[in-house]
Amino acid sequence: MKNKFFAKFDLHKNRLPIYQNAYYWFILPLAIIFIALVCGTVYSTEGNKYDGFANVGIDFKGGTVLTVEMTGADMQGSNYDEHVKMIEEAVAESGAKAGMAQKSGDNAIIVKYQNSIGGTDYNSADKTEEMIAINDTIEKTVVNKFVEKYGTSVRITANAEMTNATASSDLIKKACLSVGIAILLMLIYTAIRFDFFSGIAALCAQLTDVIVMLACVIIFRIQINSSLIAGIITIIAYSINNTIIVFDRVRENMAPYKHKKERVDIKGVLNGSVSDCVSRALLTSATTLLTITILACVGVQTLTDFALPIIFGILSGLYSSIFIAPSIWGLLMKAKQNNVRKTKKARARR
User: Fold this and answer.
1) How many Å apart are CA 112 and CA 223, to the nearest integer?
2) Residues 6+ apart with CB under 8 A from 275
3) Domain end position, chosen among 163, 181, 205
4) Are 100 and 204 in the same domain?
5) Which pLDDT score is estimated for 231?
6) Which residue in 235, 237, 250, 238 sits closest to 198, CA to CA?
7) Distance between CA atoms of residues 163 and 65, nearest Å
8) Dmax over Cα atoms in the chain, in whole Å?
9) Which residue from 55, 205, 212, 262 lies 20 to 30 Å from 41 (Cα-Cα)?
10) Are 162 and 131 in contact (CB under 8 A)?
């Protein structure tokens, strides 16, 4: 006897009205994008606590990575918060603003900050020497603060490395190239595996997932850094699975029409195919969401910045696989059938 819980997700008989509401499914992604644009505009206005349209990290904007290591005492123990505060105070004394702090190795702390002092941008080549001098001062200030607290019984090293604009620009290009190649390969695979319309629909769904993920990142002020690129590629690879399963069922349901001349029942094929797969998609996504949510709640900032965009991407991927991709396929098939019908009528009139 089928479990009553799983029976609730059995939609084989109660088919989802995907095709007849095709245009309505685009409202939610568009609304999220609109909210992101509004939030980004507010964030970029002067006189608030935010810094620009999005929370861009030094991986893309350029900045400095300050690594402070201590030998002879526990750098990451119960005094971790105090140690971070000491480093942030040393950075602030030079006019910079410390960003995210994280643990590194066995006994080191990494603090990142932008190369912007008193409103002056030091990422340009002609300002490099000045920024190096500022970083040298920060290094000495950090060492002095720890020596004042622990004396000479411990060994303190502070090393500040700049990530200049050229490096960040190169990283952006490589990130865009990686995402573009991944999406293109998905398009080619889907088009060959199924049909051209399925490839176009899958491509649109992938782009929707990426755009919605970035929109949520802007709305919630999640830092945009190199881990976000890893998250985007992860979502592209993950969300395509549900889309492929839906189109595989569509292909099976299209088989009876392959050698027949009557018009394809797009509504029946599409609604039936999605309803057959939605239970699996929901349960699979729920399992993955549970795991990644635990990762986001661990409390480590680096893991949280990586996990939150993936959560947004999984939710968007689930939505696009069930609603967006099938709807686009249905609209394209409808346009094709209408075009064929018009062509036949035109020929009959001749």
Assistant:
1) 12
2) 11, 12, 14, 15, 16
3) 163
4) no
5) 87
6) 250
7) 8
8) 99
9) 205
10) yes
| Residue 49 resides in a domain | no
Using DSSP, how many helices (H) and how many strands (E) does the chain show?
A: 11, 6
pLDDT tens per residue across span 274-319? 999 998 899 999 999 999 999 888 767 778 888 999 999 999 999 9
Q: How far apart are CA 340 and CA 334, in angstroms?
A: 10
Given this model, what pLDDT does residue 168 score?
Answer: 63
Cβ-Cβ contacts under 8 Å for 225 (sequence gap 6 or more): 57, 58, 59, 60, 305
Cα distance between residue 165 and residue 177, in whole Å: 18
Range of the domain at 140: 63-163
pLDDT on residue 4 = 52
Segments of the chain with pLDDT less than 50: 1-2, 5-13
CA gap 234, 313 in Å, rounded: 9
The token duo for 285 is: 């996504």
Long-range CB pairs of 211-214, under 8 A, 24+ apart, other chains included: 211/29, 211/33, 212/29, 212/32, 212/33, 212/312, 212/313, 212/316, 213/309, 213/312, 213/313, 213/316, 214/36
Final residue before a domain boundary, out of 163, 191, 221: 163
pTM over the 0.90 mark: no
For residue 326, give the nearest of 16, 4, 14 by alpha carbon. Answer: 16
Q: How many domains, the chain?
A: 2
pLDDT of residue 350: 67
Distance, in Å, from the CA atom of 193 to the CA atom of 216, rounded to the nearest integer, reads 32
Q: Is 104 exposed, middle or buried (0-12, 13-18, 19+ CB in 10 A)?
A: middle
User: Residue 102: beta bridge partners?
Assistant: 110
Residues 152 and 263 both lie in one domain: no
